[in-house]
Specification:
By secondary structure, the protein is mainly beta. It has no helices and 19 strands.
């Protein structure tokens, strides 16, 4: 059923109770679905869809960018090339690249880089850097000290002075 509302808007109600309202200037359209979902089609080509059940808003831009707003205040952006950007409620930001790499920036300034191969690099605000690989875990300090732990439990400390200290793991069997 099609109607012209007093403010000049057009209103169409489908047999499934879907309602479509077209603005008087014909620039925006709003579709309301029986389940409570609402779809706004804007003049600039942007489409804003509200999912009532999950209370999530999904905005599609003509450029291909998609932005999701979740009820917990999380915001996720999906870029056309496959890159994703997530802003968490605590202001942590995570970037997910199409190649599988990740970068997370925490509110305290800590930055975690994760490579597609699983290697992890952590940069701390105090200047320390930590790397995790399959061969070792290593922490580098601003004074030049480097501490490394190997999978077999062996530990190695290299100090800025050039001195090296190694702790070997010895296994004692008692019967």
């Amino acid at each position: 059923m099609e109607q012209l509302v007093s403010n000049g808007c057009g209103l169409v109600t489908q047999t499934d109770w879907t309602r479509k309202v077209t603005s008087a200037d014909q620039k925006t359209k709003t579709v309301t679905f029986l389940n409570g979902d609402v779809k706004h089609i804007l003049e600039d080509g942007k489409v804003v869809y509200y999912y009532a059940a999950s209370q999530t808003t999904h905005t599609s831009h003509p450029s291909g960018l998609e932005v999701f707003h979740f009820p917990n205040k999380q915001i996720e952006k999906r870029h056309p090339g496959g890159k994703r950007e997530i802003l968490f409620p605590d202001q942590t930001i995570k970037y997910l690249e199409p190649d599988g790499s990740e970068k997370t920036i925490f509110p305290d300034g800590t930055i975690v880089h994760l490579s597609p191969s699983g290697e992890k690099m952590v940069d701390f605000p105090n200047g320390q850097r930590e790397s995790h690989t399959t061969q070792y875990k290593r922490r580098e300090y601003p004074d030049g000290t480097v501490k490394t732990i190997y999978p077999d439990g062996r530990q190695e400390n290299k100090y800025a002075s050039g001195r090296t200290r190694t702790k070997e793991i010895s296994y004692h069997l008692t019967t």
